[in-house]
Structure formats: structure tokens, C-alpha cells
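Chapter review: from sequence to fold.
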Amino acid sequence: MARSKITTSATAASPARLWSEFVLFFGAAPLTLALLLPPDRMFPMLFAVTALGMILLHMTPSFRWADLLDGRDRIRWGAVVGIGALVLAFGVAWLALARPDDLFQIARRQPLLLAMILLLYPLVSALPQEIVYRALFFRRYAPILPRRPKAMLLANAALFSMAHLMYWSWIVLVMTFLGGLAFAWAYQVRRSFPIAVLLHAVAGNAIFLVGLGAYFYSGNVVRPF
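The C-alpha cell string follows.
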């Protein structure tokens, strides 16, 4: 994943068009989900937005879907195991204090559901999110992103966190911001989409395994207004 390919991929689109897409996709869409839509319509809207993001990525000049395999030889398994261990440790500590009944709740009460989540989450959630928030973000919108690498990573993590505003939980916003930093680092610094997907998949599975998935359940959403 050569740097020149990443930073020049969207030159065919005008800055005005890129800004319009960027604001609508990464700003208006998450706010609409959080502020206007009822919880039972959140996920159909999310799937629609994800599909649109994949179409935009496909339309991006010089992008090829095979590019997403770049960096598979640079997977850092220590980082993958480490993020899983960190999420599990944090989840045990936090839930033991704040919501002890939720600690390993699905594992204890619905092990088959947990097995299904662990199998499907990497494909139906982590992978699409990484396509939109890493590949689309950094490839298509590179011309309008901050030039400083740290600012670029922070912007990506902040917008990834805002995509989870619909859960109306500060703990979700913090977790997704930190996760967004890790996934953006994997994609933009390590130049490896496969690492980003693996980190996201392992972190997400650890969240559901330990019981933090209760914060990501649309049925628990309570808007503060």
C-alpha cells in the first residue's frame, strides 16, 4: 500500500465534492442516526450507509479491492493479542464495579448466541466498518485531510467515535475513540488493512465475550432528551 497511492487516489474529484461527501457521510449520517431515528431503524440505516460507502470507495480513482490485501505480511500478532487482552482486562475491571450482572453474561446464559457473534462479528461488522472508516476515509478523502499524520489519526478516531453516538454512552465513545486510534494506526502507519480488521475483530469479540456488548445493544439505548 504505497503512500503515493493513498494520498493521490481521489484527485479526480473536486475538493468541494469531497467536502460535501465527507460532511454528509461522516457528519450528517451519524447525527441523524443518533438524534432522529428510532432504535429499531438504526441498523437498517447503518447497512445502507455502509453500502453507500463501499460504492464511493469503488468509484475512487486508482482504488482496487485487491489493495485491501496489502500488508497481510506485516501482521503484528503481538498487537492483535495485546488489544484483546487489554479489552478483556478493562471489561472485567469495569463491569465488576459498574454492572456486575453483565460480566460474561452472554457466555453464561447464551453460549450459542456468543459463538454466533464471535463467528459473524468479524465479517458482518468489523470488516465493513474498516472498509468505510479506514479504506474509504484515507483513500478517497486524503486530499482534504490534515497533512500532519497525528492530526489525521485523531480526526479519524474522533469521527469513528461519533459514529457510535447513537448508543448515548460516554463509555462507548471513549472505547471507540481509543479503538479508532489503534485501527487507524494499523491502516495508515503500518500500511496494513488486514491488521486493522484483525484488531477490530479481536477487540469487538472481546467486548461481547466479557459483557461490554450491553453498551452496544440498541435495545438499551436511552436518549437524554
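Two observations follow directly from the output. The first helix runs from residue 3 to 7. The chain has a mean pLDDT of 92.
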